[in-house]
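Hi R.,

As promised, here are both runs. First protein below:
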Amino acid sequence: MRQDSEAALVLFSGGQDSTTCLAWSLETFARVETIGFDYGQRHRIELDVRPRVLDQIRRDFAGWSARLGEDHLVDIAVLGELSETALTHSVEIAMQENGLPNTFLPGRNLLFLTFAAAVAYRRGIRHLVAGVCETDYSGYPDCRDDTIKAMQLALNLGMEARFVVHTPLMWIDKAQTWALAERLGKEALVRLICEETHTCYNGDREHAHAWGLGCGTCPACELRAQGWEHFLSSKSDPNPRPSGNLTVVA
């Protein structure tokens, strides 16, 4: 798919998934803007990482630099104030009685998409890109394909618009996300993701691993590390399993 005359707004946290989605968008659309959110997250180091990743993409990827436009940062601290989760408070990460981990922040992705659509509406942008995934997620209901489809419908009805929400990672696992990054930006993008992006829930930037920086023990780090190992294994496997399909919610 190529949208040479279209623009997209990427929900960009500065993590592995959103950086891969940003690369996918830069390959797909003529102009790409980014949006991030300050919601009082414990791992708010990601807010410092975001501009560094964007700067490096502009500097090191000549084919994408001209396409990468304005970055938007939205303060929605009230979301963190309303929640009592491990993403916004200093509590141990654990499973809850409802079967969801306490890293689930109710309403987060719904608000993200709503604010992103409001910015996109003002900027004349029709395409929204989000790094949600139903394949190896933690059971978060706001990452499901059905949720994203419902949000797209609600946004279009409520804003009298024709937004299209793209979810390039929806049906692929973390190993395939690494493979997608390599296909899009070669070794340079894989190296950027390892060295600059941030995914660790604990905000740890002191411990370096082959797959990147992080505590190595939180669910986000464990998922990233497992995906990295499977990615390396698939590169050496002469008959790797088929990769998942990119999904567009239309």
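And here is the second one, sequence first, then its structure tokens:
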Amino acid sequence: MTAVQPETHTDPASVTAFPTDFVWGAATAAYQVEGAAAVDGRTPSIWDTFSHTPGKVRNGDTGDIAADHYHLYRDDVALMKDLGLKAYRFSISWSRVQPTGRGPAVERGLDFYRRLTDELLEAGITPVATLYHWDLPQELEDAGGWPHRETAQRFADYADIMAHALGDRVGVWTTLNEPWCSAFLGYGSGVHAPGRTEPAATLRAAHHLNLGHGLAIGALRAALPSSAQTSITLNLHQVRPLTSSAQDADAARRIDAVGNRVFTGPILDGAYPADLLQDTAHIVDWNELVHDGDLAEISRPIDVLGVNYYSPTVVSHPAEGAGTTKNDGHGASDHSPWTGSDHVAFHLANDNLTAMNWAIDPSGLHTLLTDLAASHPRLPLMVTENGAAFDDYVSPEGKVNDPQRVAYLHAHLDAVRRAIADGADVRGYFLWSLLDNFEWSYGYSKRFGAVYVDYLTQRRIPKASAHWYSDVIRNNALPDAV
């Protein structure tokens, strides 16, 4: 397996080169690209239910067809090969392989992922599998979902199934993608599936996602060869106070606790931070929630930490009598996802925005990586998602020119390179996303892909950014300028 190997560190004097073994990839998620929602035994996940609920997703869009990757995966792998990708990070649809979230797997569902990984390996592309990218089987949600402790054990059983099914093909495994979104957007603000707005359930979900991760690491380790590598991917918030005031510093501390350290504390350090427990003690009884032995399970060693970054998080304590900013970059809602700190106000870092209204600031990625390297110097890092949505369109000549995305990628890859030069052990970069896709509550209104998808015909058109990224991969270096 070559996806996460000891690297040859770049020369700080170099302004363009990346380490020799740096992994260049792209990423997708099952519900966003696969389609085939009711094919070969797949049953509804919480995102099927959520997207089919009127008013939850823009324009009533669903992932029923999406980019039809389930049927077009061979074409998509050929496209990846043409672009020179070295690795492909995909997620597995839990309800496609274990429809009820319990019991035996459906072989037809497993066979899709066997075919996909075989196709990738034949093309010389390393498969990187994510077990969970937000699509909990609906039957498990009906039984209580992530706020229910048993879901963590069901997740470990599912991890065992997948390790035995694909362990001979896949050597790099990620347990959870962005558990903050699953817990705080799914059960707090309700802008993501399952759409609940229950503060106590949010924190219970966060703990059981942590526990599910730890139990899954144990299951993977028991079933996989010793050469296999395990990880989790976190969307860590690069939190900044708006001013140097003590009140804004405390706002940043609170958001760092509920946005970052609720996961990094138990997973990397074996304990929930004391200030998080204090901030949220009026919402949940942590002594009842965290059982003896939980933290030992959660803090099982991982081989690499996946880091997703799009934009910094700028916060302040609101002025006397002022309300909070409801749209904090995670979708507008009358319910805050920031459980226990819902009075904090959010601000844009600048006015250079993507189509998501997210501020473009690559310095946040450099800071995030170097801070992680300083706090956990022996833990290798991978940038597992980074990218931007813009208002892409096909020209009369049949091309998609996206100079804003090229500029975005150049700046953020340069931030990664500088972080490596500054001592961060960053092993690779996965562009989000390979394809335009179903962008959760935004439906098909936002395009993150390096490859344009015409959803009526399923035609794929590599954008200018895809060709630019292909050149970066081939040269293992950035051009001097965009």
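A quick note on the second one: Confidence is low (pLDDT under 50) at residues 1-15. Let me know what you think.

Best,
J.
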